Amino acid sequence: MQSLASHTRSNRWLAIAIIAIALGGLLLTYWQSSAQLVSRTKSSLEKTCSDIQQAVSSLYPASETQQQSVKNPELLYQAISESIRKEEHTLGGFWHINSGFAGYAIASSRGNTQNAQLSGSDQLVISSASREALAENKPVANVTDQIPMLVVLACPEKEHAGLAIWLSRPIQPAQNYFSVTASILFALLALIGVAIIVRESLFNRRWHQERDRIVADAEDTSKAVSVTSEVGEVQPFLLLLYQARQQVQATERELMAETDKLRLAAEKTLVGRMARSMAALALSDLEALEKKLRDFDSEDLKFKVQELVSLFETFSQLSPNMQGLDKSNIELEAWLQDIADHHESFSGEKNITVTSIVDDDLHVTINPLVFRFIFDFLLRHVVAFTPVNSEVLIQATVDGDYVNVSVSDESSGVAKRNLGTMFETDDVNPDAYGVGLKVIKDAIKSQGGDINYEKLEKTSRFNVLIPMTKG
């Protein structure tokens, strides 16, 4: 199959040219037909007759009654001569109802070389038209049958009674058989042009249907690519598409394998990060247990051991999305104070002061390991980028159905280029403040909470929203 572009270029203008020639030929045939030629000649002669009438009226004084006899006929001949001088092959004169032809016919000055005498048959036609025009008091036209045809028009002259102006002009119309034959040929030519346009439309429809089929097959990656098509120009591209599809499928398989590896690596990275928080949490519980071991009875000891068992069970059930973990009721003051003390002791040479301020009797519902992980990760990040000898403030307040645990520091804040992606990317070793915090966002979202960032006048603040324990 030919391509759409080349097919359209080769046939569009051809069809337009054929139809234009056919319509032009039909119009020309119609224009040159006997009826049209006679009609145009009659209209021309009527106008000329009206001009002659006006010229004659200007030569005679205005009168309410018509003159009965023709006086100064030379003036009449002068008027008709001036009027038909520019009319090609036109004869003219006057005819009186009593005396017949007044003088002789006057030939036009444009190429008519025949003499002024009229044949007997022409005189009869002119006399008949003149009598009828005088009787009906309006222009009357007669046409002879022989070729060339003679068109005769007579009109009453209004200044003299019984006087008519007559004009004649020979015409050479096309023969009827020629007009019919030409009309049929041009009509067939027009039909050929229409047929080309219809064929072009059908071709375009089939081409676009085939194109849509190919596009649909190409977009549906689950289907095999067909390497055959009615659009011959597309055939090589289908072969290339088939090869590309095979390469894409192979690449997708490799990508899936690599994705699985990355997922496992991410799980291991998350497990490693979470293990750090779990170790700190377990160590804190064990230290508390050690300090109060002598004061604990068997039930208290059993409860603490059960907490440690639950902590390790949570760690063993950990998944990348951190869904399905058991939630507990956590009393914030003790937890946040333990976290603050832990990170202050590990700030090292930076000498960071970490302070925790919590409203009285605030409790939240969250998984303990996830809670510890969120604030361990966030505080390690803040301490890493906050200035030396500065302070980090942890403050918990009620915010509707949530508890807002804010972490404020004295850093310069998140750079503008990182504001849009601070919670969208994960980075094990970030190089700037506010970079790679996606894991915190995912963790708090898994517990029904949220996190946001705001830059205040002298401090930067992260707000961690945690569902508050009701009742």
Give a written overview of the molecule.
- Helix content is 52%, strand content 17%.
- The protein has ten helices and twelve strands.
- The strands form three sheets. A five-stranded antiparallel beta sheet has the order 2-1-5-4-3, with helices on both faces. A five-stranded mixed beta sheet has the order 7-9-10-12-11, with helices on one face.
- Strand 3 and strand 4 form a beta hairpin.
- The radius of gyration is 55 Å and the shape is elongated.
- Its EC number is 2.7.13.3.
- The chain crosses the membrane at residues 12-31, 177-198.
- Residues 241-299 form a coiled coil.
- GO terms for molecular function: kinase activity.
Spans of at least 5 consecutive residues whose pLDDT stays below 50 are: 109-115
Helix coverage percent: 40-55%
Mean pLDDT: 77
Strand content: 15-25%
Give me the side-by-side strand order of the main sheet: 2-1-5-4-3
Q: Total number of β-strand segments? A: 12
CA-based gyration radius: 55 Å
Structural class: alpha+beta
Helix count from the secondary structure assignment: 10
Question: How widely separated are the two ends?
Answer: 78 Å
Sheet with most strands: 5 strands, antiparallel
| Element-level helix/strand string | HHHEEHEEEHHHEHEEHEEHEE
Task: Based on Cα principal axes, name the global outline.
Answer: elongated
